[in-house]
Amino acid sequence: MLVVSLGDLVLDVIVRLEQPLAPGGDASSRITLGAGGQAANVAAWTVAVGGRARWLGKRADDLAGRAAAAQLAGYGVELAGPVAADGNGVIVSLVDPDGGRSMCPDRGVAVELEPVEVCDADLEGVEHLHVSGYALLREPVRDAAARAVALARARGARVSVDLSSWSAIRDRGAERFRAELEELRPDVVFCNEQEEAVLGGPLPGAFWILKRGPGGCSFGEEDHPALPATVVDTTGAGDALAAGWIVGGPTLALEAAARCVARAGSMPWT
After folding, report:
1. Number of helices and strands (H, E) in the chain?
2. φ, ψ for residue 110 (rounded to 5)?
3. How far apart, in whole angstroms, are the C-alpha atoms of residue 160 and residue 104?
């Protein structure tokens, strides 16, 4: 299966706090750098669980962009889309000692992807198009995502969307975002409980996958418990779950999520 994952490729800065933040002072932490971004995470995990993946988006040929692109390509992911001179995205994730995380994103040139920059060749051979919800929150990237969806459907591919962020949906306007999502008619929607609540409930006609963290996951009408894992960092767990489900269904989805939370960072082990 070839999965095309549309959205961000960023440099992830993961800050694992070993003590509470001290305003005006220091807080001991462990910091790691690596490729990230929801769409890039899904692409990397797709390959890790046995699929083929192509990342599609706009990135930059600067220090952050080159480092992120090299790591993603190293997983065996194809890279597609335009390359700007500079301005690649960077995300700082603050991870609490219990594994919970808060994200501070600078999405850079990812939001500047234009519809004319999405080519037929970018969707060649696609069987499943996965769209990061972050790509639906700003123009022109939202229109570029809509073009990719149209090209994918013309090839008979299935389309999924991850709602990505309850706060971003709130800021966009929940009713507006829901109407725009309905226009895309995704076959599958991934979300967590906060995102579902802000959106106003499931989207009619879409297969609904509800992520509950340590409480497991609902795949349509089927509830599955989370697999046992020692939680180090929850960053990217939902992206690993999405990749696992796309490639192999609920069992592989839960296995990928458990693998992800057991290490720091959002990408698979190399």
Report:
1. 8, 15
2. -55, -35
3. 25
Using a 10 angstrom Cβ sphere, with 0-12 exposed, 13-18 middle and 19 or more buried, the burial of residue 174 is middle
CA distance 162 to 128: 13
Amino acid at 212: R
- Cβ neighbors of 139 (< 8 A, separation 6 or more) are none
Please tell me the distance from the alpha carbon of residue 121 to that of residue 151, in angstroms, as a whole number: 10
Whether the pTM exceeds 0.85: the reply is: yes
Q: Specify the DSSP class assigned to residue 140.
A: T
Contact 244, 45 (CB under 8 A): yes
pLDDT along the chain (270 residues), means of 10: 97 90 91 93 98 98 97 97 98 82 90 98 98 96 98 98 94 96 97 97 97 96 95 89 98 97 83
DSSP calls for 151-201: HHHHTT-EEEEE---HHHHHHH-HHHHHHHHHHH--SEEEEEHHHHHHHTS
Tell me if residue 209 falls in helix, strand or coil.
strand
